[in-house]
């Protein structure tokens, strides 16, 4: 890895893009390029001024092709079609790419996998270091408690969120189910009302709270006889995603062409629990 990786931000004018520009600077790395849609009214603006951190002398451009040679790695939080196009350019130039875009279909995911045979790709549905550490702790707790406790996942988000449970709550449920050899499709319980009968030990329960401006909170309870363990993550703003993605970008520069995730970035595979 070079000491100060040159990082390009794709979707620089978006909600995540602006925070990613801040995160690159906070981490002491070099913002090498900032890219927006070719028809964006932001082209030509200074990326630092756009992100509210003062002039950086990096102009927003309308295509990755223009700046790819200036980058060791790019971070892409855009939209699926744009991400596929960015993957194509990165694989042609052998530039590493960190992808946060969600909602890719199977064909787009297959293209991502194919690209990762030619250039390093990090992909994670959630770049928060805290969420990924929480998931590791959930795996530890699940392994130790086994079938001796009841497990419930409780999540809370702002009133504008349109899906439930959150993708992160489902990631947590999947990690628990996989550790315990359960199948989330069969064992998840999303609703309880009326005469439910006693709780099945195998169930993994999900409770959803929606209201106000809650950024995102997840608690998993391991509920036994006479004691209870709770593992909680609370997000207070989107910087947690951006900081994790910048950490992934610095980590992936110079690695072999492969698809990586946050477990690789955070070195979880080397930690025995
Ligand atoms: P947003 O709509 O605010 O920003 C997306 C930006 O990408 C926009 O500015 C848009 O103009 C730009 N864009 C679109 N096509 C482009 C192209 N061809 N070239 C350059 N720029 C292009 O959305 P957002 O809230 O910033 O989220 C972006 C994506 O990141 C979404 O898919 C979201 O779900 C995902 N996300 C992932 C994580 C994670 O941890 N993995 C966290 C937050 C958001």
Automatic annotation (TrEMBL):
Binding site for (S)-2,3,4,5-tetrahydrodipicolinate: 158, 167-168
Binding site for NADP(+): 37
Domain Dihydrodipicolinate reductase N-terminal: 6-127
Species this chain originates from: Acinetobacter cumulans
Residues noted as binding NAD(+) in the record, renumbered to the chain: 11-16, 36, 100-102, 124-127
Family: Belongs to the DapB family.
This protein's UniProt keywords: Amino-acid biosynthesis, Cytoplasm, Diaminopimelate biosynthesis, Lysine biosynthesis, NAD, NADP, Oxidoreductase
Subunit description: Homotetramer.
Active-site residue list: 157 (proton donor/acceptor), 161 (proton donor)
Membrane-spanning parts: none
Annotated SUPFAM superfamilies: Glyceraldehyde-3-phosphate dehydrogenase-like, C-terminal domain (SSF55347), NAD(P)-binding Rossmann-fold domains (SSF51735)
Reactions catalysed: (S)-2,3,4,5-tetrahydrodipicolinate + NAD(+) + H2O = (2S,4S)-4-hydroxy-2,3,4,5-tetrahydrodipicolinate + NADH + H(+); (S)-2,3,4,5-tetrahydrodipicolinate + NADP(+) + H2O = (2S,4S)-4-hydroxy-2,3,4,5-tetrahydrodipicolinate + NADPH + H(+)
Positions in coiled-coil regions: none
Gene responsible for this protein: dapB
InterPro entries linked to this entry: DapB_C, DapB_N, DapB_N_CS, DHDPR_bac, NAD(P)-bd_dom_sf
Function: Catalyzes the conversion of 4-hydroxy-tetrahydrodipicolinate (HTPA) to tetrahydrodipicolinate.
Entry keyword annotation includes NAD: yes
Protein name (Swiss-Prot/TrEMBL): 4-hydroxy-tetrahydrodipicolinate reductase
GO BP: diaminopimelate biosynthetic process; lysine biosynthetic process via diaminopimelate
Listed GO MF terms: 4-hydroxy-tetrahydrodipicolinate reductase; NAD binding; NADP binding; oxidoreductase activity, acting on CH or CH2 groups, NAD or NADP as acceptor
Superkingdom, natural source: Bacteria
PANTHER family in the cross-refs: 4-HYDROXY-TETRAHYDRODIPICOLINATE REDUCTASE 1, CHLOROPLASTIC-RELATED, DIHYDRODIPICOLINATE REDUCTASE
Enzyme class of the recorded protein, top EC level: oxidoreductase
Subcellular location: Cytoplasm
Segments forming domain Dihydrodipicolinate reductase C-terminal: 130-266
NCBIfam families per record: dapB
